[in-house]
Amino acid sequence: MTDGFRKWRRSFRYAYEGIKYALDTQRNMKFHFCVAFLVLLAALFARLPKTDILFILLAVTLMIVTELINTAVEKTVDLAMPDRHPLAKIAKDVAAASVLVSAGFAVIVGMIVFYEPIDRLLRESRIQNSPISAGTIWVLIALVILTVIVIETRFSDKGKLVRPSLLTAVAFSIATVITIFVSQTIVALLAYTLAALIFIMLYDKKTRPFPALFLGALIGAAVTILALSCLNML
């Protein structure tokens, strides 16, 4: 009984070391864990039913498992074939394709599960009969840009604060403006989908780290909501 427990504990430790290695070395795994944390937090905030939460857990688990398998395949191929080889490329491409399929499944699950809570939230927060003009919206976007520039120049010196991404700030600001003024929720979701695609493209090109992109998106959405709320109260 003791030997069995020791073997189980050793196996658990090895598995934990594998997850820790993937988190320490793989950028995509860090991204998946951050997104999973935000999605689960949103699920608790929206008070989703048990069935929806199970689907979210399934999508998150599948996403992380395929990324772990992809990492294992990549390291095994690198060990067996250090030089470039067509078969090694095929093995890595197929492993990466499994991650892509699971990511697509996770996105579809998220759109289906969160559509009704998001639709309800947007219907309650939309601005009705707003006198805000197109010029005001451009001034609002300029305010977002100035906010990011001020944070970069005044508070990001000497590594004190992560420098926010200007492109993600503008993208999520525009998506927020569209979300507040359109009457159809699907249009708002498409606007945020385009903003998220910009986020992913910048992350994939390694122009900015994930915290900088996330901070930019947060600033763009928060400044836009705050400014429009103030204008609506006038």
From TrEMBL:
InterPro entries from the UniProt entry: DAGK, DAGK_sf, UDPK
Top-rank taxon, per record: Bacteria
Gene Ontology terms for molecular function: kinase activity
Membrane topology: Multi-pass membrane protein
UniProt main location, coarse: membrane
Cellular compartment(s): Cell membrane
Similarity annotation: Belongs to the bacterial diacylglycerol kinase family.
Protein name as it appears in the record: Diacylglycerol kinase
